[in-house]
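Cross-posted from the bioinformatics board.
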Amino acid sequence: MAITRTPPRGTAGPEPEPEPGPGPGHSPSREAGADREASPEESRHLTSPLLLTAVLLTAVMVQDPVRRALAAPVMQSWMTVFVAVVVQALPFLVLGVLLSAAIAVFVPPSFFARALPKRTALAVPVAGAAGAVLPGCECASVPVAGALVRRGVAPAAALAFLLSAPAINPIVLTATAVAFPDDPEMVLARFVASLLVACAMGWLWQRLGRTDWLRPPARSSYAGQSRGAAFWGSVRHDVMHAGGFLVVGAMAAATLKAVVPEEWLRAAAGNPVLSVPALAALAVLLSICSEADAFVAASLTQFSLTARLTFLVVGPVIDLKLFAMQAGTFGRAFALRFAPVTFALAVAVSALTGAVLL
Amino acid sequence: MRRDPRRTVGLDLNRQAQAALLFLLGATVLHAGLTDLHLRYVKAGLRPLLLLSGAVLIATAAATIRYAWRRGPREHDAERHREPRISWLLTLPLFALILVAPPALGSYSATHTGTALQKPFGFPDLPARGPLRLGVGEYAARAVYDDGRHLRDRPIGITGFVALDRTGTPYLVRMTLNCCAADAQPVKIALTGEIPPVLQPDTWLEITGTYTPRRTRDPVNGGPVPYFRVTRAEPVPPPPDPYDAT
Protein backbone atom coordinates (compact mmCIF):
# COMPACT_ATOMS: atom_id res chain seq x y z
CA MET A 1 0.00 0.00 0.00
CA ALA A 2 1.56 3.23 1.09
CA ILE A 3 5.02 1.79 0.93
CA THR A 4 4.81 0.94 -2.74
CA ARG A 5 4.57 4.62 -3.51
CA THR A 6 7.95 5.29 -2.04
CA PRO A 7 10.31 6.09 -4.90
CA PRO A 8 13.29 3.76 -5.26
CA ARG A 9 15.60 6.45 -3.97
CA GLY A 10 14.53 5.23 -0.56
CA THR A 11 13.79 7.16 2.54
CA ALA A 12 16.14 5.28 4.78
CA GLY A 13 18.86 4.52 2.25
CA PRO A 14 22.45 5.38 3.00
CA GLU A 15 22.65 7.93 0.21
CA PRO A 16 22.58 11.56 1.28
CA GLU A 17 19.99 13.59 -0.49
CA PRO A 18 21.38 17.10 -0.33
CA GLU A 19 19.23 19.92 -1.50
CA PRO A 20 20.09 21.10 -4.94
CA GLY A 21 22.68 23.82 -4.48
CA PRO A 22 22.37 27.28 -5.96
CA GLY A 23 24.06 26.10 -9.14
CA PRO A 24 23.54 27.50 -12.63
CA GLY A 25 20.16 26.95 -14.17
CA HIS A 26 18.51 26.48 -10.82
CA SER A 27 15.69 28.86 -10.22
CA PRO A 28 14.28 29.06 -6.71
CA SER A 29 11.08 30.68 -7.92
CA ARG A 30 10.35 27.80 -10.25
CA GLU A 31 11.04 25.38 -7.46
CA ALA A 32 8.61 27.19 -5.20
CA GLY A 33 6.08 27.17 -8.01
CA ALA A 34 6.45 23.42 -8.35
CA ASP A 35 5.81 23.06 -4.65
CA ARG A 36 2.69 25.13 -4.83
CA GLU A 37 1.41 23.06 -7.71
CA ALA A 38 1.97 20.05 -5.55
CA SER A 39 -0.05 21.30 -2.63
CA PRO A 40 -3.51 20.35 -3.89
CA GLU A 41 -2.21 16.91 -4.78
CA GLU A 42 -1.05 16.41 -1.26
CA SER A 43 -4.50 16.08 0.16
CA ARG A 44 -5.32 13.17 -2.12
CA HIS A 45 -1.94 11.50 -2.17
CA LEU A 46 0.60 10.58 0.38
CA THR A 47 1.55 13.10 3.04
CA SER A 48 4.77 13.02 4.94
CA PRO A 49 3.23 12.20 8.36
CA LEU A 50 1.52 9.23 6.72
CA LEU A 51 4.77 8.20 5.07
CA LEU A 52 6.64 8.55 8.35
CA THR A 53 4.08 6.34 10.09
CA ALA A 54 4.38 3.79 7.31
CA VAL A 55 8.16 3.76 7.54
CA LEU A 56 8.04 3.32 11.32
CA LEU A 57 5.46 0.52 11.12
CA THR A 58 7.43 -1.30 8.44
CA ALA A 59 10.57 -1.07 10.50
CA VAL A 60 8.78 -2.60 13.48
CA MET A 61 7.31 -5.40 11.35
CA VAL A 62 10.56 -6.42 9.70
CA GLN A 63 12.71 -6.03 12.79
CA ASP A 64 13.45 -9.73 13.21
CA PRO A 65 14.94 -10.32 9.72
CA VAL A 66 16.83 -7.05 10.07
CA ARG A 67 18.25 -8.12 13.41
CA ARG A 68 19.34 -11.45 11.97
CA ALA A 69 21.02 -9.68 9.07
CA LEU A 70 22.85 -7.46 11.52
CA ALA A 71 24.07 -10.30 13.72
CA ALA A 72 27.46 -10.55 11.96
CA PRO A 73 30.15 -9.10 14.26
CA VAL A 74 31.35 -6.58 11.69
CA MET A 75 27.80 -5.23 11.23
CA GLN A 76 27.28 -5.07 14.97
CA SER A 77 30.43 -3.10 15.55
CA TRP A 78 29.51 -0.83 12.62
CA MET A 79 26.15 -0.12 14.25
CA THR A 80 27.63 0.42 17.67
CA VAL A 81 30.11 2.97 16.31
CA PHE A 82 27.38 4.64 14.23
CA VAL A 83 25.02 4.97 17.19
CA ALA A 84 27.89 6.07 19.43
CA VAL A 85 28.90 8.91 17.10
CA VAL A 86 25.30 10.10 16.84
CA VAL A 87 24.60 9.83 20.58
CA GLN A 88 27.87 11.56 21.43
CA ALA A 89 27.40 14.41 18.97
CA LEU A 90 23.67 15.03 19.40
CA PRO A 91 23.83 16.90 22.75
CA PHE A 92 26.53 19.20 21.40
CA LEU A 93 24.58 19.70 18.20
CA VAL A 94 21.49 20.63 20.24
CA LEU A 95 23.53 23.07 22.35
CA GLY A 96 24.99 24.68 19.24
CA VAL A 97 21.56 24.89 17.65
CA LEU A 98 20.10 26.58 20.75
CA LEU A 99 22.97 29.06 20.78
CA SER A 100 22.62 29.78 17.07
CA ALA A 101 18.85 30.28 17.43
CA ALA A 102 19.50 32.69 20.31
CA ILE A 103 22.01 34.60 18.18
CA ALA A 104 19.60 34.66 15.24
CA VAL A 105 16.63 35.89 17.27
CA PHE A 106 17.78 37.77 20.35
CA VAL A 107 21.10 39.37 19.39
CA PRO A 108 20.63 42.38 17.09
CA PRO A 109 22.94 42.60 14.06
CA SER A 110 24.25 45.92 15.39
CA PHE A 111 25.93 44.02 18.25
CA PHE A 112 28.29 42.21 15.88
CA ALA A 113 28.93 45.41 13.95
CA ARG A 114 30.12 47.00 17.20
CA ALA A 115 31.93 43.96 18.63
CA LEU A 116 34.01 43.17 15.55
CA PRO A 117 36.48 45.55 13.89
CA LYS A 118 35.17 47.24 10.75
CA ARG A 119 38.01 46.00 8.58
CA THR A 120 37.52 42.34 7.68
CA ALA A 121 41.28 41.74 7.80
CA LEU A 122 41.20 42.65 11.50
CA ALA A 123 37.86 41.00 12.20
CA VAL A 124 39.25 37.62 11.15
CA PRO A 125 41.79 37.20 13.99
CA VAL A 126 39.35 38.69 16.52
CA ALA A 127 36.66 36.20 15.51
CA GLY A 128 39.24 33.41 15.49
CA ALA A 129 40.33 34.22 19.02
CA ALA A 130 36.67 34.51 20.07
CA GLY A 131 36.37 30.82 19.21
CA ALA A 132 38.03 30.20 22.56
CA VAL A 133 34.76 30.98 24.37
CA LEU A 134 32.54 28.35 22.73
CA PRO A 135 33.06 25.27 24.87
CA GLY A 136 32.02 22.53 22.54
CA CYS A 137 33.14 20.42 19.66
CA GLU A 138 32.73 20.96 15.95
CA CYS A 139 29.07 19.93 15.94
CA ALA A 140 28.23 23.06 17.93
CA SER A 141 30.32 25.48 15.89
CA VAL A 142 28.75 24.81 12.48
CA PRO A 143 25.23 26.08 13.29
CA VAL A 144 26.67 29.00 15.28
CA ALA A 145 28.86 30.06 12.35
CA GLY A 146 25.82 29.78 10.07
CA ALA A 147 23.87 32.09 12.38
CA LEU A 148 26.76 34.57 12.43
CA VAL A 149 26.73 34.77 8.62
CA ARG A 150 22.98 35.32 8.62
CA ARG A 151 23.45 38.04 11.22
CA GLY A 152 25.63 40.02 8.85
CA VAL A 153 29.07 39.02 10.15
CA ALA A 154 31.60 38.95 7.31
CA PRO A 155 31.86 35.34 6.07
CA ALA A 156 35.66 35.46 6.41
CA ALA A 157 35.33 36.23 10.14
CA ALA A 158 32.58 33.67 10.68
CA LEU A 159 34.69 30.99 8.97
CA ALA A 160 37.69 31.83 11.16
CA PHE A 161 35.39 31.34 14.15
CA LEU A 162 34.05 28.07 12.69
CA LEU A 163 37.56 26.65 12.37
CA SER A 164 39.06 27.89 15.62
CA ALA A 165 36.19 27.27 18.08
CA PRO A 166 36.39 23.45 18.19
CA ALA A 167 40.18 23.46 18.56
CA ILE A 168 41.17 26.21 20.98
CA ASN A 169 38.41 26.29 23.60
CA PRO A 170 39.46 25.67 27.21
CA ILE A 171 37.89 22.19 27.45
CA VAL A 172 39.78 20.91 24.43
CA LEU A 173 43.07 22.46 25.53
CA THR A 174 42.69 20.99 29.02
CA ALA A 175 41.99 17.57 27.53
CA THR A 176 45.14 17.94 25.43
CA ALA A 177 47.20 18.82 28.50
CA VAL A 178 45.83 15.79 30.36
CA ALA A 179 46.47 13.48 27.42
CA PHE A 180 50.08 14.63 26.95
CA PRO A 181 51.39 14.99 30.52
CA ASP A 182 55.01 14.62 29.38
CA ASP A 183 54.77 17.07 26.48
CA PRO A 184 53.16 20.32 27.70
CA GLU A 185 54.41 22.11 24.57
CA MET A 186 51.79 20.07 22.67
CA VAL A 187 49.06 22.34 24.10
CA LEU A 188 50.83 25.48 22.91
CA ALA A 189 51.56 23.94 19.51
CA ARG A 190 47.93 22.94 19.09
CA PHE A 191 46.67 26.39 20.07
CA VAL A 192 49.09 28.23 17.78
CA ALA A 193 48.65 25.93 14.78
CA SER A 194 44.84 25.84 15.01
CA LEU A 195 44.52 29.61 15.37
CA LEU A 196 46.95 30.11 12.47
CA VAL A 197 44.93 27.79 10.23
CA ALA A 198 41.67 29.52 11.18
CA CYS A 199 43.01 33.03 10.51
CA ALA A 200 44.77 32.01 7.30
CA MET A 201 41.56 30.44 5.98
CA GLY A 202 39.63 33.59 6.94
CA TRP A 203 42.08 35.85 5.10
CA LEU A 204 42.17 33.47 2.15
CA TRP A 205 38.38 33.58 1.92
CA GLN A 206 38.47 37.38 2.09
CA ARG A 207 40.92 37.41 -0.84
CA LEU A 208 39.58 34.64 -3.05
CA GLY A 209 36.17 33.69 -1.72
CA ARG A 210 33.08 34.46 -3.75
CA THR A 211 29.75 35.01 -2.08
CA ASP A 212 27.90 32.95 -4.67
CA TRP A 213 29.78 29.86 -3.39
CA LEU A 214 28.03 30.31 -0.10
CA ARG A 215 24.43 29.23 -0.14
CA PRO A 216 22.24 32.28 0.51
CA PRO A 217 20.64 32.14 3.96
CA ALA A 218 17.89 29.55 3.89
CA ARG A 219 15.60 31.69 5.98
CA SER A 220 15.74 35.31 4.96
CA SER A 221 14.16 36.67 8.12
CA TYR A 222 11.76 35.98 10.88
CA ALA A 223 9.99 39.27 10.35
CA GLY A 224 6.35 39.15 11.28
CA GLN A 225 6.78 36.24 13.68
CA SER A 226 6.84 36.41 17.43
CA ARG A 227 10.23 35.87 19.01
CA GLY A 228 9.14 32.51 20.41
CA ALA A 229 7.97 31.28 17.02
CA ALA A 230 11.19 32.48 15.39
CA PHE A 231 13.37 30.86 18.08
CA TRP A 232 11.69 27.45 17.97
CA GLY A 233 11.42 27.59 14.19
CA SER A 234 15.16 28.08 14.00
CA VAL A 235 15.84 25.24 16.45
CA ARG A 236 13.55 22.88 14.52
CA HIS A 237 15.05 23.73 11.16
CA ASP A 238 18.65 23.42 12.34
CA VAL A 239 18.15 20.13 14.20
CA MET A 240 16.36 18.53 11.25
CA HIS A 241 18.94 19.80 8.81
CA ALA A 242 22.26 19.47 10.62
CA GLY A 243 21.02 16.25 12.26
CA GLY A 244 20.53 14.63 8.86
CA PHE A 245 24.06 15.50 7.84
CA LEU A 246 25.37 14.32 11.19
CA VAL A 247 23.85 10.91 10.38
CA VAL A 248 25.66 10.87 7.02
CA GLY A 249 28.96 11.69 8.72
CA ALA A 250 28.40 9.07 11.41
CA MET A 251 27.73 6.40 8.78
CA ALA A 252 30.90 7.32 6.91
CA ALA A 253 33.00 7.29 10.07
CA ALA A 254 31.59 3.91 11.17
CA THR A 255 32.22 2.41 7.73
CA LEU A 256 35.82 3.54 7.63
CA LYS A 257 36.47 2.40 11.17
CA ALA A 258 35.22 -1.04 10.19
CA VAL A 259 37.12 -1.16 6.90
CA VAL A 260 40.57 0.42 7.43
CA PRO A 261 42.88 -2.20 8.94
CA GLU A 262 45.27 -1.15 11.69
CA GLU A 263 48.23 -2.79 9.93
CA TRP A 264 48.27 0.12 7.46
CA LEU A 265 48.82 2.53 10.30
CA ARG A 266 51.79 0.57 11.59
CA ALA A 267 53.37 0.62 8.16
CA ALA A 268 52.85 4.39 7.89
CA ALA A 269 54.22 5.11 11.37
CA GLY A 270 57.64 3.76 10.44
CA ASN A 271 58.11 6.40 7.74
CA PRO A 272 58.59 9.96 9.12
CA VAL A 273 57.50 11.64 5.87
CA LEU A 274 54.49 9.41 5.35
CA SER A 275 53.37 9.53 8.99
CA VAL A 276 52.16 13.16 8.83
CA PRO A 277 49.75 12.75 5.88
CA ALA A 278 48.72 9.33 7.23
CA LEU A 279 47.53 10.76 10.56
CA ALA A 280 45.98 13.75 8.78
CA ALA A 281 43.93 11.35 6.66
CA LEU A 282 43.06 9.32 9.75
CA ALA A 283 41.78 12.45 11.49
CA VAL A 284 39.49 13.15 8.54
CA LEU A 285 38.22 9.58 8.34
CA LEU A 286 37.66 8.91 12.04
CA SER A 287 35.70 12.15 12.64
CA ILE A 288 36.38 12.06 16.37
CA CYS A 289 34.88 14.75 18.55
CA SER A 290 37.54 17.40 19.22
CA GLU A 291 37.11 17.05 22.96
CA ALA A 292 38.34 13.47 22.76
CA ASP A 293 40.82 13.43 19.91
CA ALA A 294 43.77 14.28 22.18
CA PHE A 295 43.40 10.95 23.98
CA VAL A 296 43.29 9.07 20.72
CA ALA A 297 46.35 10.95 19.51
CA ALA A 298 48.14 10.14 22.76
CA SER A 299 47.46 6.45 22.19
CA LEU A 300 49.07 6.53 18.73
CA THR A 301 52.45 6.22 20.40
CA GLN A 302 54.19 4.73 17.38
CA PHE A 303 53.88 8.10 15.58
CA SER A 304 56.07 11.19 16.01
CA LEU A 305 54.81 14.19 18.00
CA THR A 306 54.56 16.28 14.81
CA ALA A 307 52.39 13.64 13.16
CA ARG A 308 50.16 13.57 16.22
CA LEU A 309 49.96 17.38 16.23
CA THR A 310 48.74 17.15 12.63
CA PHE A 311 46.04 14.75 13.81
CA LEU A 312 44.96 17.27 16.47
CA VAL A 313 44.96 20.26 14.10
CA VAL A 314 43.29 18.60 11.11
CA GLY A 315 40.53 16.77 13.01
CA PRO A 316 38.68 19.82 14.40
CA VAL A 317 38.84 21.82 11.15
CA ILE A 318 37.89 19.16 8.64
CA ASP A 319 36.57 15.62 8.91
CA LEU A 320 33.83 13.59 7.25
CA LYS A 321 31.13 14.55 9.71
CA LEU A 322 32.13 18.22 9.56
CA PHE A 323 32.24 18.17 5.75
CA ALA A 324 28.71 16.79 5.61
CA MET A 325 27.49 19.41 8.07
CA GLN A 326 29.26 22.26 6.26
CA ALA A 327 27.72 21.12 2.99
CA GLY A 328 24.35 21.18 4.71
CA THR A 329 24.74 24.63 6.23
CA PHE A 330 26.72 26.54 3.62
CA GLY A 331 26.03 24.50 0.48
CA ARG A 332 27.92 21.87 -1.48
CA ALA A 333 29.62 24.42 -3.75
CA PHE A 334 31.21 25.94 -0.65
CA ALA A 335 32.19 22.71 1.08
CA LEU A 336 33.81 21.21 -2.03
CA ARG A 337 36.14 24.22 -2.34
CA PHE A 338 36.67 25.00 1.32
CA ALA A 339 37.41 21.51 2.68
CA PRO A 340 40.40 20.53 0.48
CA VAL A 341 42.11 23.90 1.00
CA THR A 342 41.53 23.69 4.76
CA PHE A 343 43.00 20.20 4.77
CA ALA A 344 46.13 21.17 2.82
CA LEU A 345 46.68 24.30 4.89
CA ALA A 346 46.15 22.46 8.20
CA VAL A 347 48.70 19.78 7.25
CA ALA A 348 51.26 22.38 6.15
CA VAL A 349 50.81 24.63 9.20
CA SER A 350 50.98 21.78 11.70
CA ALA A 351 54.07 20.31 10.06
CA LEU A 352 55.76 23.72 10.29
CA THR A 353 54.57 24.35 13.86
CA GLY A 354 55.74 20.88 14.83
CA ALA A 355 59.16 21.54 13.34
CA VAL A 356 59.50 24.79 15.31
CA LEU A 357 57.85 23.97 18.64
CA LEU A 358 58.08 20.22 19.19
CA MET B 1 17.32 19.71 -11.22
CA ARG B 2 13.60 20.26 -11.38
CA ARG B 3 11.70 17.68 -9.43
CA ASP B 4 8.54 16.09 -10.65
CA PRO B 5 5.98 17.42 -8.18
CA ARG B 6 3.88 14.27 -8.27
CA ARG B 7 6.79 12.07 -7.40
CA THR B 8 8.09 14.14 -4.51
CA VAL B 9 4.79 14.73 -2.81
CA GLY B 10 5.14 13.57 0.75
CA LEU B 11 8.90 13.24 0.57
CA ASP B 12 9.52 16.71 1.91
CA LEU B 13 8.81 16.49 5.60
CA ASN B 14 6.06 18.87 6.63
CA ARG B 15 5.71 20.41 10.06
CA GLN B 16 3.69 17.59 11.63
CA ALA B 17 6.11 14.94 10.41
CA GLN B 18 9.04 16.99 11.66
CA ALA B 19 7.38 17.38 15.03
CA ALA B 20 6.77 13.63 15.21
CA LEU B 21 10.37 12.87 14.25
CA LEU B 22 11.74 15.38 16.78
CA PHE B 23 9.52 13.93 19.50
CA LEU B 24 10.59 10.34 18.74
CA LEU B 25 14.22 11.37 18.65
CA GLY B 26 13.92 13.22 21.96
CA ALA B 27 12.07 10.34 23.60
CA THR B 28 14.69 7.86 22.38
CA VAL B 29 17.54 10.00 23.69
CA LEU B 30 15.73 10.38 27.04
CA HIS B 31 15.16 6.62 27.16
CA ALA B 32 18.83 5.94 26.46
CA GLY B 33 19.86 8.51 29.06
CA LEU B 34 17.51 7.29 31.78
CA THR B 35 18.47 3.63 31.40
CA ASP B 36 21.93 2.06 31.19
CA LEU B 37 21.61 1.98 27.41
CA HIS B 38 23.78 5.07 26.89
CA LEU B 39 26.67 3.40 28.71
CA ARG B 40 27.12 1.08 25.71
CA TYR B 41 28.02 4.03 23.52
CA VAL B 42 29.27 6.98 25.55
CA LYS B 43 30.80 7.79 28.92
CA ALA B 44 28.61 8.18 31.98
CA GLY B 45 29.58 11.86 32.18
CA LEU B 46 27.53 12.67 29.08
CA ARG B 47 24.29 11.67 30.78
CA PRO B 48 23.16 15.15 31.99
CA LEU B 49 23.75 16.57 28.52
CA LEU B 50 21.87 13.66 26.94
CA LEU B 51 18.86 14.21 29.18
CA LEU B 52 18.96 17.95 28.51
CA SER B 53 19.11 17.49 24.75
CA GLY B 54 16.28 14.95 24.86
CA ALA B 55 14.14 17.47 26.74
CA VAL B 56 15.02 20.24 24.27
CA LEU B 57 14.08 18.00 21.32
CA ILE B 58 10.69 17.22 22.87
CA ALA B 59 10.14 20.90 23.65
CA THR B 60 10.96 21.73 20.02
CA ALA B 61 8.41 19.16 18.86
CA ALA B 62 5.78 20.68 21.16
CA ALA B 63 6.56 24.22 20.01
CA THR B 64 6.41 23.15 16.36
CA ILE B 65 2.93 21.66 16.84
CA ARG B 66 1.78 24.68 18.82
CA TYR B 67 2.85 27.32 16.29
CA ALA B 68 1.69 25.28 13.30
CA TRP B 69 -1.72 24.82 14.95
CA ARG B 70 -2.02 28.46 15.93
CA ARG B 71 -1.24 29.73 12.44
CA GLY B 72 -3.86 27.53 10.87
CA PRO B 73 -3.52 25.25 7.86
CA ARG B 74 -3.88 27.85 5.06
CA GLU B 75 -1.09 30.14 6.16
CA HIS B 76 0.96 27.07 6.90
CA ASP B 77 0.74 25.83 3.34
CA ALA B 78 1.60 29.22 1.90
CA GLU B 79 4.73 29.47 4.00
CA ARG B 80 5.89 25.94 3.38
CA HIS B 81 9.31 25.98 1.87
CA ARG B 82 11.40 23.02 0.85
CA GLU B 83 12.39 21.16 3.96
CA PRO B 84 15.54 19.11 3.63
CA ARG B 85 14.87 15.55 2.61
CA ILE B 86 18.09 14.60 4.35
CA SER B 87 16.13 14.86 7.59
CA TRP B 88 14.67 11.44 6.77
CA LEU B 89 18.02 10.00 7.74
CA LEU B 90 17.27 10.91 11.35
CA THR B 91 15.00 7.85 11.36
CA LEU B 92 18.10 5.61 11.13
CA PRO B 93 19.53 6.28 14.60
CA LEU B 94 15.94 5.95 15.88
CA PHE B 95 15.61 2.44 14.46
CA ALA B 96 19.11 1.55 15.53
CA LEU B 97 18.47 2.60 19.13
CA ILE B 98 14.88 1.40 19.56
CA LEU B 99 14.80 -1.78 17.53
CA VAL B 100 18.35 -3.06 17.53
CA ALA B 101 20.13 -1.32 20.43
CA PRO B 102 23.53 -2.63 19.27
CA PRO B 103 25.66 -4.15 22.03
CA ALA B 104 28.78 -2.55 23.45
CA LEU B 105 31.93 -3.22 21.44
CA GLY B 106 33.20 -6.72 22.13
CA SER B 107 35.69 -9.32 21.02
CA TYR B 108 35.46 -8.49 17.32
CA SER B 109 36.78 -4.96 17.85
CA ALA B 110 39.19 -6.17 20.50
CA THR B 111 40.92 -8.63 18.19
CA HIS B 112 41.09 -6.11 15.34
CA THR B 113 42.61 -3.34 17.44
CA GLY B 114 45.95 -3.33 19.21
CA THR B 115 46.19 -3.01 22.97
CA ALA B 116 46.11 0.62 24.10
CA LEU B 117 48.00 0.11 27.34
CA GLN B 118 49.66 3.36 28.39
CA LYS B 119 52.03 4.19 31.17
CA PRO B 120 49.97 5.83 33.93
CA PHE B 121 51.09 8.97 35.78
CA GLY B 122 51.79 7.06 38.97
CA PHE B 123 50.90 3.99 40.97
CA PRO B 124 48.86 4.70 44.11
CA ASP B 125 49.65 2.31 46.97
CA LEU B 126 47.51 -0.79 47.24
CA PRO B 127 46.63 -2.55 50.51
CA ALA B 128 49.81 -4.35 51.62
CA ARG B 129 48.36 -7.86 51.75
CA GLY B 130 45.20 -9.85 51.19
CA PRO B 131 43.19 -10.43 48.02
CA LEU B 132 42.98 -7.63 45.43
CA ARG B 133 40.27 -6.59 42.99
CA LEU B 134 41.69 -4.82 39.97
CA GLY B 135 40.45 -3.61 36.60
CA VAL B 136 41.97 -5.07 33.44
CA GLY B 137 43.73 -1.79 32.67
CA GLU B 138 45.08 -1.40 36.19
CA TYR B 139 46.47 -4.92 36.35
CA ALA B 140 48.07 -4.60 32.93
CA ALA B 141 49.63 -1.21 33.72
CA ARG B 142 51.05 -2.38 37.08
CA ALA B 143 52.30 -5.64 35.59
CA VAL B 144 54.04 -4.02 32.63
CA TYR B 145 55.21 -0.65 33.93
CA ASP B 146 55.60 -1.30 37.67
CA ASP B 147 57.11 -4.82 37.46
CA GLY B 148 54.12 -6.10 39.39
CA ARG B 149 55.49 -4.55 42.58
CA HIS B 150 52.29 -4.80 44.62
CA LEU B 151 50.91 -7.79 42.76
CA ARG B 152 53.26 -10.62 43.73
CA ASP B 153 52.17 -13.60 45.82
CA ARG B 154 48.57 -12.66 46.46
CA PRO B 155 45.20 -13.61 44.96
CA ILE B 156 43.88 -11.12 42.41
CA GLY B 157 40.38 -10.86 40.92
CA ILE B 158 39.72 -9.29 37.51
CA THR B 159 36.53 -8.95 35.45
CA GLY B 160 36.48 -8.66 31.67
CA PHE B 161 35.29 -10.38 28.51
CA VAL B 162 36.94 -13.15 26.54
CA ALA B 163 38.50 -12.58 23.13
CA LEU B 164 40.35 -15.17 21.04
CA ASP B 165 42.88 -14.07 18.47
CA ARG B 166 43.46 -15.81 15.13
CA THR B 167 45.61 -18.52 16.69
CA GLY B 168 43.01 -19.14 19.40
CA THR B 169 45.04 -17.56 22.22
CA PRO B 170 42.61 -16.43 24.92
CA TYR B 171 42.71 -12.87 26.26
CA LEU B 172 40.72 -11.15 28.95
CA VAL B 173 39.78 -7.73 27.58
CA ARG B 174 38.16 -4.53 28.69
CA MET B 175 37.59 -1.71 26.21
CA THR B 176 38.41 1.83 27.34
CA LEU B 177 36.61 4.92 26.13
CA ASN B 178 37.96 8.41 25.77
CA CYS B 179 34.74 9.91 24.53
CA CYS B 180 32.47 7.43 22.80
CA ALA B 181 32.59 3.92 21.39
CA ALA B 182 34.01 5.30 18.13
CA ASP B 183 37.37 5.72 19.85
CA ALA B 184 37.18 2.61 22.06
CA GLN B 185 40.46 0.78 22.48
CA PRO B 186 41.08 -2.54 24.16
CA VAL B 187 43.47 -3.38 26.98
CA LYS B 188 44.34 -7.06 26.92
CA ILE B 189 45.65 -9.60 29.39
CA ALA B 190 46.82 -12.97 28.08
CA LEU B 191 45.58 -15.94 30.11
CA THR B 192 47.55 -18.93 31.31
CA GLY B 193 47.04 -21.55 34.04
CA GLU B 194 43.70 -23.26 34.55
CA ILE B 195 41.76 -21.77 31.67
CA PRO B 196 38.27 -23.22 31.14
CA PRO B 197 38.46 -25.78 28.29
CA VAL B 198 35.76 -24.11 26.18
CA LEU B 199 35.80 -20.34 25.91
CA GLN B 200 33.18 -18.43 23.96
CA PRO B 201 34.26 -14.98 22.76
CA ASP B 202 32.36 -12.13 24.45
CA THR B 203 31.64 -14.18 27.59
CA TRP B 204 32.13 -12.06 30.68
CA LEU B 205 34.37 -13.78 33.22
CA GLU B 206 35.45 -13.02 36.73
CA ILE B 207 38.86 -14.62 36.99
CA THR B 208 40.87 -15.20 40.11
CA GLY B 209 44.57 -15.98 40.00
CA THR B 210 48.03 -14.62 40.51
CA TYR B 211 50.58 -12.35 38.89
CA THR B 212 53.18 -13.79 36.57
CA PRO B 213 56.10 -11.82 35.11
CA ARG B 214 55.64 -13.46 31.73
CA ARG B 215 54.76 -11.05 28.88
CA THR B 216 53.93 -11.17 25.23
CA ARG B 217 53.32 -8.76 22.35
CA ASP B 218 49.96 -7.88 20.89
CA PRO B 219 49.74 -9.51 17.43
CA VAL B 220 48.06 -6.39 16.01
CA ASN B 221 50.27 -3.51 17.10
CA GLY B 222 53.11 -5.09 19.05
CA GLY B 223 52.00 -3.45 22.31
CA PRO B 224 52.89 -5.09 25.63
CA VAL B 225 50.45 -7.69 26.96
CA PRO B 226 51.05 -9.17 30.43
CA TYR B 227 50.08 -12.71 31.39
CA PHE B 228 47.85 -13.72 34.26
CA ARG B 229 47.86 -17.16 35.89
CA VAL B 230 44.23 -18.22 36.28
CA THR B 231 43.19 -20.45 39.17
CA ARG B 232 39.43 -19.99 38.88
CA ALA B 233 37.15 -18.51 36.21
CA GLU B 234 33.45 -17.85 36.69
CA PRO B 235 31.00 -16.54 34.11
CA VAL B 236 29.32 -13.35 35.28
CA PRO B 237 26.64 -11.11 33.74
CA PRO B 238 27.99 -8.09 31.82
CA PRO B 239 28.41 -5.08 34.12
CA PRO B 240 26.13 -2.03 33.57
CA ASP B 241 29.08 -0.02 32.26
CA PRO B 242 30.88 -2.45 29.96
CA TYR B 243 33.86 -0.13 29.45
CA ASP B 244 36.83 0.37 31.73
CA ALA B 245 36.19 3.34 33.99
CA THR B 246 39.47 5.11 33.38
